[in-house]
Amino acid sequence: MNRLIAWLRVALIDLRGSAARFTILIACLALGVAAIGVVSSVRSAVETAIARDARAILGGDLELRSQRTDITPDVLSALEKLGPVNREVQLNSQAQKGYLSAFLSLRGVGDLYPLVGDVVLAPGALPGSTADLLGQQNGVWGILLSPQAALRLEAAPGDTIRVGTLELQLRGIIDTLPDQATLGFQLGAPALVSDATLPLAGLKQEGVLNQFQYKVLLEDTDFASAETALEEQFPDSEVRIRSPREATASIARFITIFGNFMLLVALSSMVVGGLGAANAVTAYVGERQSAIATMRSLGASGNRIMVQFLAQIIFLSLLSIAIGLVAIAVGTFAILPLLAGLIGLDLPAALDLRSMAAAGGIGLVTAIIFAWLPLLHARAIRPALLFRAGGSSNLERQDWRSWLTPIASVPLLIGFALLFALTLSIASDMQLVAIYFAGTVVAFLLLRLAAALLGLILSRVPPPPNRLLRMALSAIVRPGAPTTTVLVSMGMGLSLLLLIVTTQSNINNQIATEVTTEAPAFVLLDLDKPNLAALTDFVAATPDIEALTTIPMLRGTITALKGAPPPTSEDDISRDVADMFRGDTALTWSAAMPADTVIAEGEWWTEDYSGDPQVSLSTEMRDALDLSIGDSIEIAVAGRPLAMTIASFRLIDWRSPNFNFRIIVSPGLIESAPQSYFGTITVAEGADGVVEAALLGDFPQLNFVPVGDTLARVRAVFDGLINAIALVSGTAVLAGILVLAGALSVGRQQRQADAVVMKVLGAKRSDVIAAFLIEYALLGAIAAVLASGIAMLGAWAAATWLLEIDFMVPVGQLGLVALLVIVVTIVTGAATTWSAMSTTPAAKLRMETP
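RE: above sequence
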């Protein structure tokens, strides 16, 4: 033990004069620890808040939800026996102030809202409770708007806003709602009114996209007992009952999935930082070869050398981790308040010690893994090195077979197992973590292979006539050149960033071109026949409207398939199809085959068909339910069962702007069933605002969706998520730049020797500098090309199989990134090796003279 303590003491003393050489190692590891720790801590804080505030997020102890239609009085009476009840109606509507309009996701709430928590309003709101602000004052009802809607309407508290046919007073701007997190993505800007104002405004409460929610504060029972009692009392009711835990399950699942992905992106910065650690240790061992050989000649064993250098690496890693932990604390305290306002959760500034410990552990294990092989190199140095000529700091190339020896492979395998376990402790998804590790290894091998092939190709290419270019190419392929290290380190971080940038570009391009170009200006919801007739006349009299398209929509319950009871929503079938058996489902009828329909199997009926009812289903239903042409399906429409024969199966492109129904019925009996209409309006270019104002003026109660606003909200959501990922992935690029600096500094002594030889042979200082800069530019260009190739492959796979959107190569963005990479490589290389380029032959010879 005393001997080990003495060894460690010597290691720390030896490190005092060498700590500055490890700036790159410290920076890389600290950056990786900070990225992982901040992402993990923020995710943990959000998950803790969801679990802690599930009751407030739901808005009660029990929620009963009904889609499209309100509950019956006997169900409401049963709820009131359980405790205080608040009624909410969610629908879409338009708000107007003068010539300005805003599309709202409107919530009509009862006087008890919110049962749990508080509505927080921005400064400037009128005084009073939520019920008072939404209630009637001097004959005028109130409304609370989100900041987006108020900005769109240029409205302030006290202004008059029209919703439907009713004039409302804006009494406050919403800051946060206690149940905001359960609302999810909304088509319009959030707004609150009293549910008593909805019929006064002429708004249709029951509709396709409308939802009725009843929140209950349980008094003398628990959720399980209340749920059982309601299900036994109303077994045929098509309502959904949720507990606070169930209501927050989807939010928690999204946070977990997105958080895991962000963690793995942050881990990429640590992987790149590990390469920086390997470079730093390699450079350090190379520069200390003579000292190590001297120690060996004085009797130091290989294990003694190993312990000394390993102790130094561990000490430096702990220093890096300490810096990273401080960064985690600062980043977490800065991000949580900002995030709390965005997602409507109470996120107190607190540190997650588990996340910090895991991040620190990952940093330490990563440093040891990447430093292990250079340390083994130090262990293998012999005293005979003292008798060799030359002062190069380059280490001899290791035989790959030496990596398979127990002393090399066993610690590395243990290290990778620890790294996997630590990552899994915070990512909690073994499959995702395994895929990430496998993908990282594949990307690493691809970059190594590409670097090797590049060296082979350049070594066989005839020398170019230009002298400077010839010198730059020879420097790239010479023994000891940092080419492989630069390409791998820069390629790993850069390929990740380019993958994200390309994916974001493809999503935005899909929205901006295909969707925006083909989509109508407005989507009409819940049209009845009288409104449809009046709207048809309006369209005919409005020259700015190019087309009105309508389609009937009915609701029905599938009661039998192939003469047997249908599956339930809990059976092992795809989620989309399973949702069709959770209550009723949407269907339509049509005599003519809709435009762009693709029949995969069977035939469409004739337009004058009048025989037994037939039906055309989607191929998803065929595959999930094992259906065939000629099979029977029974659907109850308005309580009347309708038996039909399957005539065809259709391929449905859910990205198309057309109305898509999985079930289309032949004309006949179904035409007399209760039904409403969906519709679309296409307008002349630039006429959206004029037509919208005309629609609101002539049809204030019409429920329609401005497609442009909705697409803008969709794009904003995607951009927000992808920008967050890009921000984290930027740490990997920053780590790559640090690694680049470290890699170029590894051969600093060799570059000094090269510069001296070039000057002795007649080269000017400007020639030496130009040759080095061309070399750096070529390295940057090659790294950009390799990273672009890997990123394009990943982006194509994501677009084709994950997002199912068209793939395109963003040439302009790739070119800009390539140019930036070249500039960064040149600047970093010049800053790192400037003194080497400026070395005079006399100075170098004096250094070499004993």
